[in-house]
Amino acid sequence: MVAMDLFRSEEMSLVQLIIPAESAHDTVIYLGELGLLQFKDLNPDKSPFQRTYANQVKRCGEMARKLRYFHDQIAKAGQTPAQRPMVDKSVDLDELEIKLTELEAELLEINANTDKLQRAHSELVEFQLVLDKAGAFFSSARNTASTVQQQRADAENESSIEESIDRPLLQEQEMQTEPSKAARLGFISGVVPKAKAASFERILFRATRGNMFLKQAPIEGTTIDPATGEETEKTVFVVFFSGERAKSKVVKICEAFGANRYPFPEDPNKQWQMKSEVETRLSELQNTLDAGNHHRHNIFNNIGFNLERWTITVRRDKAAYHTLNMLSIDVTRKCLVAEGWCPVSAKPKIQDALQRAAYDSNSQVNTIFRVFRMKESPPSYFETNKFTNAFQEIVEAYGVGRYQEANPGCFTIITFPFLFAVMFGDWGHGICLLLGALYLVLNEKNLGKQKLGDIMEMAYGGRYVILLMAIFSIYTGFIYNEFFSVPFGFFGGSAYRCPDPQFSIENCPSATTSGVEKWSYEPYAFGVDPIWHGSRSELPFTNSLKMKMSILLGISQMNLGILLSYFNAKYFCSALDVWYQFIPQLLFLNALFGYLSFLIVLKWCQGSKPDLYHVMIYMFLSPTEDLGENQLFSGQTYVQIILLLIALVAVPWMLFPKPLILRNQHIQKMRGATYGALRRSDSSASEAEVDSDHDEEEFEFSEVLVHQMIHTIEFVLGAVSNTASYLRLWALSLAHAQLSAVFYERVLMFAWGYSNPVIRLIGLIVFTFVTFGVLLLMETLSAFLHALRLHWVEFQNKFYQGDGYKFKPFAFNSLSEEDDM
Which ranges of the sequence are coiled-coil (predicted)? Predict the structure, then answer.
């Protein structure tokens, strides 16, 4: 019986546990697995670092950090931790700490060695590219030099001339310089990022004032930068210069641009020898890297196989030590004292868990379980399931209920989606909403395992709320007879016909002008007669119907709230609240607005046409005036005078008696305490005085009177404003229907008036998008928020205090990843 369980919170007990020190950890672990005990912090004055188990919490935090590091490393390597079913095999925390430390040290060493090897490998790759590209430069220069020498030898017939092979790289005027004045050229080779190559060349030219020669060759594809480890496009360069001063400038510019310099021999034989050495070292490094990656992959597999179990173990132990820090230690340091709240129905389960913990920890003494007399208000606990949880969350978003006061959650399950549907009523839109809700409900297991976005997470959490909202919307849509604003005659024929017998009721031309005539006294079987749609009197009829229906629903729900205040007063044995709050509030509300509801129903039954606005206004302004044609029943004037007097009497009835009676009770109680103290000795009298000061709250008559005055004024004014607030049901229902009609007639039917299929398709697409965006999203959110306000303000303020606090037991299944931080 979930509804009865929801009506009042579970009965709670304040318990004390005296736990032997040797079984304290296991006891808290077992209680965390049970999840039915909320511990109280018995060391509120101590900081987290001054508590007994601070070192253990720090150890668990460090292990959690290592596990997060392992998880990040596995994800970075592109692997997925192996999943295996959880077993009940316990993990020793000390052994786990040693194992995690060893694994972290091994992994750090492997990563450091891999980084060094990868850096060396990247440098050798760049060196190999420099040897290839720069070798091509010098090979081309030698070929050019040989060609020029051969041409000069043939032209001048001088075979004994030996010139440097560097000379073709210089200008011709420099080639004619005397040998004594010629300076030998130097060069630097390396690689530079391709994006910086142009700037690199400009800076070199300006720094050397043009006294340099630069050759560049872009590298095909990308290479791994040894410094950053990122793939980058690079260019091989060779800079020729003259003098040590120019060399120092070139070196500094290379360092500034992040260019990697590599040595390049001029001798072709040394070049080939160096290439061979680089290729050999690259092959060795690659083999070493492959072996290291294989070893790291095996470590990741080993870690990933146990990662989930280790994470859960560390998370549970950290939470357990946090809880142990809330316990007080006996002076002998042989036992720990815990206090907390638990449901009365959970006592046998808790005692069983305590016995199992003592047995498994080989403790010679069992944990002592005692129940205290409660002096403070217990937490509120409602046992909900996946269906009722969302509705309870709607209520508790306003405020957590006071301990065992009437819970509006069990009524919200029906009233919330129904009031939403009153504003949203369209069975076409309801079907669309139902399809979305069914998708969330039928796929709840798969969606529950996924990480959803904020909006999708909110929709998933309220999937059963949306489901009921959709079902009720279909129901009210049939009552309003609207399917995307189109009526259907599913429930029999209309009670009206066209005055001109040549036309059917559907094609009657006078329906929008002079109107139609009624020919049958049997009303349409269910809902609104479809003939009202599109007629001249459609808007006045639906306005009157929905406005009166909103008032009836509002008065009914507010009466339900006042009735629940009676159940609260009876449950807490508060006769004052019954006689001086429930009765006058019920009389005041129904003497005015209950009477209005009666007139609405009576007018519907009689089919008469009195003006109810005139009746209610002159009930206050001129109660004795004859109603004339607005009279609905005989003796109505006298009844209204009596109801008005009852409403006037109810106001002081709410205001004065309760504070005066409370004052009288306080005076009598103080006299009784004084007489009782005189009979005792001085010592016992002082103790009684201390207890009295501790237990009794200070009574101030002025504060009680002001509080009751505020409460009375709030109810009197709220009776008017809350009734008017329920007219939002009419306003939003009318807005929804008119928007739907506008989109249907001005978009879809307008496009359907053309014979061009493209225009019809465009019209259908526009109609679909505006219906989804405006009516299924914006209107749904609007109706949801208005229904929320009606429950929080108009309904719950009649009986619901909402000043309690929620029962938050120590439970492992409620721990999240944030608890690892």
Answer: 86-158
Above 80 in pLDDT, residue 498? Answer: no
Those residues whose C-beta lies under 8 Å from the C-beta of residue 607, and which sit 6 or more positions away, are none
- In sequence order, the 6+-apart residues with CB closer than 8 A to the CB of 98 are none
Torsion of CA 748, 752, 754, 756, to 10 degrees: 100
Other CB atoms within 10 A of residue 636 CB: 18
Nearby residues of 182 by Cβ (< 8 Å), 6 or more positions away: 174
The per-residue pLDDT for 12 is: 94
Q: Which of 579, 812, 661, 788 is nearest to 780 (CA)?
A: 788
- 658 Cβ contact list (under 8 Å, min separation 6): 576, 580, 581, 708
The yes-or-no verdict on residue 3 having pLDDT over 90 is: no
Token pair, residue 313, equals 């173990």
pLDDT for res 316 = 92
Of 133-142, 462-471, 797-806, which range is least confident?
133-142
Please compute, for residue 439, the number of CA atoms within 13 A of its CA located in the half-sphere on the CB side: 8
DSSP 133-163: HHHHHHHHHHHHHHHHHHHHHHHH---S---
DSSP annotation string for 431-454 = HHHHHHHHHHHHTHHHHHHS---H
Q: At 109, is the secondary structure helix, strand, or coil?
A: helix
Residues 136-153: what's their mean pLDDT? 75
Q: Looking at the chain, how many residues does it have?
A: 821
What pLDDT, on a 0 to 100 scale, did the predictor assign at position 180? 44
The percentage of residues in the chain with a pLDDT greater than 90, rounded to a whole number, is: 51
Type of residue found at 514: S
Domains of the chain: 1-42+334-383 (3.30.70.240), 111-147+184-288 (3.30.70.2750), 387-488+511-673+701-798 (no CATH)
Assess whether pLDDT exceeds 80 at residue 514.
no
Q: Rg of the Cα trace of the chain?
A: 44
Instruction: Judge whether residue 248 has pLDDT over 80.
Output: yes
Indicate if the pLDDT at residue 145 is higher than 80. Answer: no
Q: What is the pLDDT of residue 681?
A: 47
Burial 423-445 (b: 16+ CB within 10 A, else e): bbbbbbbbebbbebbeebbeeee
Least confident of 213-217, 315-319, 651-655: 213-217
The residue type of 780 is T
SS3 614: helix
Q: SS in 3 state form for 622-639? A: CCCCCCHHHCCCCCHHHH
* Residue-level pLDDT at 372: 87
In this prediction, what percent of the chain has a pLDDT beyond 70? Answer: 87
What DSSP designation does 790 have?
I
Whether the per-residue pLDDT at 88 is higher than 60: the answer is no
Q: H helices within 443-537, ranges in order?
A: 444-449, 454-461, 463-480
- CA–CA distances in Å: residue 225 to residues 109, 134, 235, 283: 22, 19, 12, 19
Residue holding tokens 């999840």?
35
For residue 140, pLDDT beyond 80: no
pLDDT at 797: 92
Q: Look at residue 394 and give its three-state secondary structure.
A: helix
What's the CA gap between 776 and 761, in Å, rounded?
Answer: 21
